[in-house]
Amino acid sequence: MTNPAAYATRVAPSGATVLMPTGRINLTSAGSLRAQLSDLIAAGNTKVVVDLSTADAIDSSGIGALISSLKAARAAGGDLRLTAPNEQVKSVLKLTNLSRVLLVLPDADAPFDQPAA
Known about the structure:
This protein has 117 residues and is of the alpha/beta class. It has helices spanning 27-42, 60-75, 87-95; strands at residues 8-11, 17-20, 23-25, 47-51, 55-58, 79-83, 104-105.
């Protein structure tokens, strides 16, 4: 499935694919995020870092996209990590208790298997 409104991606020094969503990750944009992450994982990019440095906010639809992508990455033998969440995103992760599941790296170029921040 090709995503016409693709977010920027790059490869980190660790070999992980870094995806950089922008703006609000909500009902309107979560489908595109989920589709792009699914395409990356299906293409063999199973170590994925979602760099949230340019994301303004996230809602339950955005969280759902991240969780489904985390499951897909793990099923493919990889994992999904986050980096640079703002205070709103940190608050949502903490309130939903997902901060224990969606691990946060200190930065997108950190070693992928390093302990979460």
